[in-house]
Structures are given as C-alpha cells and as structure tokens.
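Changelog note: in this version the structure field was regenerated for every chain. One regenerated record is shown below for reference.
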Amino acid sequence: MQDYWKDFTVVEDGSESLGGNLHHGDTNAITPGFWRYLVDRFSVRTLLDIGSGEGHAPYVFHRLGVIAHGIDGLERNVRNAKYPIALHDLTKGPYIFPCDMTHCVEVAEHIEPAHVGNLMRTLINGSVVVMTHGLPGQSGHHHVNNQPQEYWVEKFDQQGFTLSIDNELFRDIAVRDVPNCYFSKSGLVFLRRS
C-alpha cells in the first residue's frame, strides 16, 4: 500500500519539508458542499488558500463566485496548478493578502514550530479562518508539528480570534459532504473578535 501512495505523492528533490500532497488532489481535502455552506454563511467574497498543492481548493472557491488566491511553497505545485497560485515559502516570512476568509487544510502539521508565527500571520489575513491540523501521533510526510486542538485555540486567542461556537456543526456538515474528510477529524473555524 505504501508504494501505491508514493506513486501519487508530489515531492521535489532536495525539499524534504515541502510537498506530500497528492497529484490531482486529495478527495479527503476537497469538500465543495461544506465550502459552499461557509461561503454563504460568512458572505465570503475573497479567500486565501494556504498550502494549495495543485490549486484545487482555489479553483472550487472560484467556481463558487469567490475571488480566490492560493499559495504553495513547492515550485512544482505552482507550475502544475489547476488554478493559478503563487509561490511562497512560509519559512521565509508570512504572506500578506487581506481577505474575508483563509483556508488551510493539512498544512499546519508540516510547519516547524520555529515558523508557526509566519503561518499564524498568514492565517489571520482573514476575519474567518478555516483550518485542519495534525493530531498528536498522526503519521505523514514531514509531520513535525502535530498538536492538540487546545494548542491552536491558544495561538488564535493570542491573535484576537475565538473558536466558533458552531465548530461541531461545521464538522458535521463537512462529514456529510465527504465522510472521511480531514475537517471532520481536526477542523477548526476561528472568528476574529470585534
């Protein structure tokens, strides 16, 4: 089974910390029905997708009528993206793109603790933050920052954001859309406090 997934995993020589996404998209990361709900619920007009892989999420958000922009640190992903995305390495600094919502699925666990500040400053571009994170003990390509939910709640609290009181509802909606989606296991929606 390991060899099968290896054939579909995007990696680039000399870049152990980048990549790990699947060629042609990961069905557990793409939740179009849930995304439609979020766009309607929060009146999302602009979005930044962080760790876009091959640009599948920005493409779907674009189809929903959102001005969607994505970033990825792996040049190969940017070159082969289904939807135009920008090259940006979060180890070098945050990415600034003020927007209504930021989206970051299966990325946080790949960010070394020394660079979490850059990720946080990128995430808080939006007044709504939608993300997943690796859980303690979760295996995967370059999982170097698997944390419990409380870790992220504290990080966002320090930035003036609160975990939505509807977070469990959001997970229920996501799992009805895609039963094994990442969001159903570790999804978080943070809202900027007024």
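Spot check on this record: DSSP finds eight helices and seven strands in the chain. The longest strand covers residues 67-72.
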